[in-house]
Amino acid sequence: MPENASVGIIFTKRSNTDAIATKNYLLNKFTQKEVAKFYRLLEIFESVVTVFHELYPLSSKGKNIRRAVLSKQLSVFYKIGENQITVLTILDNRLDYSKWP
Questions:
Q1: Nearest Cα to Cα of residue 77 among 63, 67, 69, 86
Q2: pLDDT at 6 (0 to 100)
Q3: Which homologous superfamily is 8-95 in?
Q4: Within the chain, how many helices (H) and strands (E) appear?
Q5: Span 57-79, mean pLDDT?
Q6: Cβ of 33: how many Cβ atoms within 10 Å?
Q7: Measured distance CA(43)–CA(46) in Å, rounded
Q8: Residue 15 · residue 91 · CB < 8 Å
Q9: What does the alpha-carbon distance between residue 28 and residue 20 come to, in Å, rounded to a whole number?
Q10: 1 has a pLDDT exceeding 70
């Protein structure tokens, strides 16, 4: 897929679960303002990665898996497919992601 060719984004079941867990954590520990910031970071990621697929570096987590660090607290792992970007997981950077399968 050529760089700059706009594609769609697919969120896996796991990444959706991660997003919901992050939202619930933020609502429990912080305020709606932090939830809005979290969703804004995801929106920015989506708009950038759909155009610049390889902007973020390859991860050590597997072949062709990339890690986008969106903030000090948040990373998104994704794969580039033929006509889509697949978001595999959304992780809190404060956790030990070396245990991620």
A1: 67
A2: 67
A3: RelE-like (3.30.2310.20)
A4: 2, 4
A5: 90
A6: 9
A7: 5
A8: no
A9: 12
A10: no
